[in-house]
UniProtKB/TrEMBL annotation:
PROSITE patterns according to UniProt: PEPTIDASE_M14
Membership in a protein family: Belongs to the peptidase M14 family.
Keyword Zinc attached: yes
UniProt KW Zinc keyword: yes
Name the UniProt record assigns to this protein: M14 family zinc carboxypeptidase
Residue span(s) of domain Peptidase M14: 99-400
Cofactor(s) this protein requires: Zn(2+)
GO molecular function, one term: carboxypeptidase activity
Active site: 372
Cross-referenced Pfam families: Peptidase_M14
Region (Disordered): 21-96
Organism domain of life: Bacteria
C-alpha cells in the first residue's frame, strides 16, 4: 500500500497566497495545510463574468479561424534564423513591475540570441487570441537540410512503424531526443519564460563538452510564452478569457492549437509545463486517479525519476523556509493522498502523454507574485520572489536536461513502446512495484487501465443524426493526429450494418489512448476519491452531437481508405424553399447569418428546423460551403417568423465564446455594467449564468432590469439564472442545487418538440441543478434519467446525503415557460459540448419572440 500522505498544501494560486504570511524580515511563515482547491473556487462569478465581458469579439473570430502552422514542412536544417520585428514598447506590461521580461522585449532578445552562434532558431508557432506572436525556439547542434530530413524520417518511424523503429540501429545512434519546455500558459505565472530565456542564452554561449554533447544528442524546444495576452495583462486567461490549461481536448483557442501542433510535429519524449505558485515547489507525478488511457507504467517510471532529479536540484539551490520563505519540494504521488490528480486530459502534461511524452510534468514554482500579492506587496519583495522563482524554474529545467541526456536510450525506447502497444493492440501494463521498480508506495489505488474497443465507427447516412456534427468530430480527431479511415463500401461490423462513407477509427493505432479518451464514455470515479482537482468527464462521443459507436469484435475487415480531411457535407437543394435543420452549432451559425442579412426565415412548427425562402438560395450556397451544412428541399409552410436575436449575456468566457461561435449578436453584461447604465433597448433576451446579482444592483439598474424581464424574458443557467428567475417571478419552480463539486457526463431524457428536440441523450453538468414543485404553466424540456444518471465523472452526495445523483434522477433538468427557460445542466461549458449548443440557441430564439 502507498505510504500515508499529508493533506495537499496550497494547491491553487489563491489558496497558496492565503497561506503565506510575510514576516518582518521578508521570510514566509510555514504554510497551513489546506484542502485541494479547484479553479472555480479561486474566482468569483463576477470576476469570471468580467473576464467574459472584457473579451472582444475579435478574439473569438481569431480563435475560430486561426490555424496552427505545420512545423514539419520546413525543409531547412538548423539553425533557422529570422529577424523578428520588434513590438511597440508597452509600459503597462505587468511583467515590468516584477523585474521580468515584458512581452515587447522578447523579440529583440530572441534576435540577439540568434546572433550568438549557430545553435538557436526561432519560428512563429501561431498567434494568440489577442494577436500576439507565439515564439517557438529550438536549441540544438547545427543540422544540414539532409540531416534534418533524416531526423524527421526517424520521428515518423517511431510513431508509425514502432516495431521497426525499435530494431533500427541508426535511429538508436542518431535520433535526437526531443525535450519541450512550455512556459507561461497561465499569463500571471510569469517566471518560466525568464528561466527559459536565461537557459537558452547559456546554451548558446557555452563551449564546454557537456553542452556540446547535450546539443548533439537532443533537440530542445521552448514555447517562450504560451499566453502573451495574459503575460501583458497580468491575467491567468488569454484575451478571450480562457484558461488554456483546461482547453486541450476542445482546442477552442489558437494558442492551444499551436501547442497541440508542437506536440504532434516535435513529438517530445520529455516536457515541463511551468506554473506557479505552490510552496514548496510542486512537481508531478500526480495523485490518484490516474488517466486510464495512457501507458501509465512507462509514464510513472520516467516522470517519477525525473521529479526526484528536479527535487534535488531545486532543494540544492539552498533556499530555506526561515531565510527565504521557500519550502522543500513536494511530489504529489509520493507526498499526498489525493486532490492533485492527472485524470482529465485537459491539462498540458496529461495531453502530451498521448503524443508519446513519457516524462511530463506540471511544475508549480513556489512564491506567489500575482493577484493580491502583485497589488499589495512592495516592488522589492515582488522582485525578490520573482528572482527566486526564476532560479527554481531554471533548476527544474537543468535537471530535466540532465535526465534526458543520461536516459536518452530508455526514453526513446519507452516512447516507441507507447506507440507499439497502440499499433499492435497490446494490453496495458498495470502499475505495481514489479512493473515500475524504484517508485515507492504504489498501491491498488494507483491502478487504472481501460478495455479498448477494437474500433469506433462514426456512421454516415441513416445511422447518423447530424452529418455536419460527424464531419466536425472527424476533423477534430484528424487535427489531433488520430488515424481515421473511410469505408469504400457498405459493411457490417459488431452486428450493425453501416453505409459506405462511414468513418472507422481502428484502435490498433499508435495514438489509441488519445482516440479513446476523446470518444469513450469515460468512467464514473465517484467512489475512487473524495475530491478532484477539475472536471472528470468530457466524452466527445456523447457530447459533440455525432454518433460514435464502440465496436468490440475480434477482427476488423472493412473496405476503406485513409482520410486526411472529411468530405464536405454542405448542400443546397436546386429548387424550391429550403430546410435548414437546427441540430448543430454550425447550423445555428448559418441561421444567424441569414437573419443578420435580413432574410425572412421561419421556424418550423416542430421547432427543429428553419424554413428558408428560395430567394435566399445564393446566400444559402455560401453558408453551406462556409459552415458545411445542408439546405434540403421542403414543401413545409407556416411556422414562426424569426429575427436576429440580440443577447445581453452575463455569462462565463466559455459561454460567451460559444454564443459568438453560433453568430449571435451578443452584448456582455454584469452587475457592474448594469450599474453603470445599460441600454436595454438593444437587447431581445437576457442570458444569465454568472456575474449578475439582483441584490447588488442599484435601484435604477434593478428597475431597468425588472422592466426588461417583464416585457422580454430570461434564459438562465445554474444558481445565478435561478436567482434572477425568482427575483423576477417568471417561472414557478423550486431550484435544487446538487453537490457543487459534481461534474461529468449525464444521461438525460428529452421531451418531444420544444428546445431539446433532436438533442443528444447525454448532457454535461458542473455543480448540477434540478427543478421541483413545478407550476402548472411550466414545461419540462428535459429530465435527468432515472437510476444513476451519471455516466462518467465525479458526483457524490453531500455529507447529509443530499445533492447526489440519486436525488437528481428523474427530476427536471431544463424547464420553460412563456418568458423564461432555466437550465440545470451546462450545455455551453467551456465551449466544449458542441452537440448541446443548439439547446441554448433554441431557448434564446424562443424567449426572444
Amino acid at each position: 500500500m502507498r505510504l500515508p500522505r499529508p493533506a495537499l498544501i496550497a494547491t491553487a494560486t489563491a489558496t497558496a497566497a492565503a497561506t503565506l504570511l510575510l514576516s518582518p524580515h521578508g521570510a514566509l511563515a510555514e504554510p497551513t495545510p489546506q484542502p485541494p482547491t479547484r479553479e472555480r473556487e479561486t474566482e468569483s462569478a463576477s470576476e469570471g463574468a468580467d473576464r467574459a465581458a472584457g473579451a472582444p469579439e475579435s478574439t473569438a473570430d481569431r480563435a475560430l479561424t486561426s490555424p496552427a502552422p505545420d512545423l514539419t514542412t520546413d525543409a531547412r536544417g538548423y539553425p533557422r534564423e529570422q529577424n523578428l520585428t520588434p513590438d511597440p514598447q508597452n509600459p503597462a506590461d505587468k511583467s515590468i513591475k516584477l523585474g521580468l521580461t515584458p512581452y515587447h522585449a522578447i523579440a529583440p532578445k530572441l534576435n540577439a540570441l540568434q546572433r550568438l552562434g549557430d545553435r538557436v532558431s526561432v519560428e512563429i508557432a501561431g498567434r494568440s487570441a489577442g494577436g500576439h506572436r507565439l515564439y517557438l525556439v529550438t536549441v540544438t547542434a547545427p543540422e544540414s537540410a539532409k540531416q534534418a530530413r533524416a531526423q524527421e524520417r526517424m520521428r515518423e518511424l517511431i510513431e508509425n512503424a514502432p516495431q521497426a523503429a525499435a530494431k533500427d540501429p541508426a535511429l538508436k545512434a542518431a535520433y535526437k531526443t526531443p525535450v519541450f519546455f512550455n512556459n507561461n500558459i497561465h499569463g500571471n505565472e510569469w517566471e518560466g519564460t525568464d528561466a527559459a530565456l536565461k537557459l537558452i542564452e547559456r546554451l548558446a554561449k557555452a563551449k564546454d563538452k557537456d553542452t556540446t554533447d547535450l546539443l548533439a544528442r537532443n533537440r530542445l524546444y521552448f514555447n517562450i510564452t504560451a499566453n502573451p495576452d495574459g503575460r501583458i495583462a497580468g491575467t491567468r486567461a488569454n484575451a478571450g478569457g480562457f484558461d488554456m490549461n483546461r482547453d486541450f481536448i476542445t482546442a477552442s483557442q489558437p494558442e492551444v492549437r499551436a501547442m497541440r501542433q508542437i506536440e504532434i510535429d516535435k513529438q517530445p519524449a520529455v516536457m515541463l509545463d511551468l506554473h506557479g505558485y505552490v510552496n514548496g515547489t510542486l512537481i508531478e507525478p500526480a495523485t490518484p486517479p490516474h488517466g486510464e488511457n495512457y501507458e501509465y507504467d512507462l509514464f510513472l517510471k520516467n516522470t517519477y525519476a525525473n521529479a526526484l532529479g528536479m527535487e534535488s536540484a531545486v532543494n540544492g539551490l539552498g533556499y530555506t523556509p526561515g531565510k527565504d520563505g521557500v519550502e522543500p519540494v513536494q511530489i504529489p504521488f509520493r507526498d499526498q493522498e489525493e486532490g492533485w490528480d492527472d485524470w482529465p486530459p485537459i491539462f498540458t502534461p496529461q495531453y502530451a502523454a498521448f503524443h508519446g511524452t513519457v516524462a511530463a510534468h506540471t511544475v508549480e514554482i513556489p512564491l506567489a507574485v500575482n493577484n493580491e500579492e502583485y497589488d499589495e506587496l512592495p516592488v522589492a519583495e515582488l522582485r525578490r520572489r520573482s528572482a527566486i522563482n526564476v532560479d527554481v524554474a531554471g533548476a527544474a529545467m537543468d535537471a530535466t536536461l540532465d535526465y534526458a541526456q543520461k536516459h536518452r536510450a530508455s526514453l526513446i525506447a519507452d516512447q516507441i513502446e507507447v506507440f507499439r502497444r497502440g499499433a499492435t493492440g497490446a494490453a496495458q501494463v498495470p502499475v505495481s512495484p514489479e512493473t515500475v521498480p524504484g517508485v515507492p508506495g504504489i498501491g491498488p489505488e494507483d491502478v487504472y487501465t481501460t478495455d479498448f474497443p477494437r474500433a469506433y465507427v462514426i456512421p454516415s447516412g441513416g445511422n447518423q443524426r447530424s452529418a455536419t456534427a460527424a464531419a466536425r468530430l472527424v476533423d477534430h480527431l484528424l487535427a489531433n493526429d488520430v488515424q481515421v479511415r473511410r469505408a469504400t463500401k457498405d459493411f457490417r461490423l459488431g452486428g450493425t450494418s453501416y453505409a459506405k462513407g462511414s468513418y472507422v477509427i481502428d484502435m490498433h493505432q499508435p495514438k489509441r489512448g488519445l482516440a479513446n479518451v476523446m470518444l469513450a464514455d469515460g468512467r464514473d470515479i465517484s467512489d475512487k476519491v473524495s475530491t478532484m482537482y477539475d472536471i472528470s468527464g468530457w466524452s466527445l462521443g456523447r457530447l459533440w452531437g455525432a454518433s460514435a459507436d464502440s465496436v468490440r469484435t475480434a477482427g476488423l475487415s472493412v473496405p476503406s481508405r485513409t482520410v486526411h480531411e472529411t468530405a464536405g457535407v454542405g448542400y443546397v437543394a436546386p429548387y424550391g424553399n429550403l430546410r435548414l435543420r437546427l441540430d448543430d452549432a454550425r447550423e445555428i451559425a448559418a441561421l444567424n447569418s441569414l437573419l443578420a442579412d435580413g432574410v425572412s426565415v421561419r421556424q418550423s412548427t416542430d421547432g427543429g428546423s428553419a424554413i428558408v425562402p428560395a430567394s435566399a438560395r445564393t446566400k444559402a450556397a455560401a453558408l453551406a460551403k462556409k459552415y458545411d451544412v445542408a439546405f434540403d428541399a421542403t414543401k413545409a409552410t407556416g411556422g414562426t417568423p424569426l429575427h436576429r436575436v440580440r443577447v445581453a449575456a452575463a455569462v462565463t468566457p466559455g459561454e460567451l465564446f460559444a454564443l459568438r461561435e453560433m453568430n449571435f449578436d451578443v452584448a456582455p453584461v454584469s452587475t457592474a455594467i448594469l450599474n453603470a447604465g445599460f441600454d436595454w433597448s438593444k437587447a431581445d433576451v437576457l442570458f444569465a449564468s454568472a456575474g449578475l446579482d439582483h441584490e447588488d444592483l442599484t435601484p435604477a439598474a434593478r428597475t431597468a432590469l425588472d422592466a426588461f424581464l417583464s416585457r422580454k424574458g430570461l434564459v438562465g443557467r445554474g444558481a445565478v439564472g435561478a436567482a434572477l428567475n425568482a427575483a423576477a417571478d417568471l417561472l414557478a419552480v423550486k431550484p435544487v442545487e446538487g453537490n457543487g463539486d459534481a461534474n461529468g457526463v449525464v444521461r438525460v431524457v428529452n421531451s418531444r418538440g420544444g428546445i431539446t428536440q433532436g438533442a443528444p441523450d447525454h448532457s454535461f453538468v458542473y455543480a448540477p441543478m434540478w427543478f421541483t414543485d413545478l407550476g402548472s404553466s411550466v414545461r419540462v424540456e428535459q429530465s435527468y434519467a432515472t437510476g444513476n444518471p451519471l455516466v462518467s465523472g465525479h458526483w457524490r452526495p453531500l455529507d447529509d446525503g443530499t445533492g447526489g445523483p440519486d436525488r437528481a434522477a428523474g427530476r427536471a433538468s431544463v424547464v420553460s415557460g412563456p418568458h423564461a427557460v432555466l437550465f440545470g445542466t451546462e450545455p455551453l461549458f467551456r465551449a466544449h459540448p458542441k452537440g448541446e449548443f443548439p439547446q441554448m440557441a433554441r431557448a434564446l430564439l424562443t424567449v426572444s419572440r
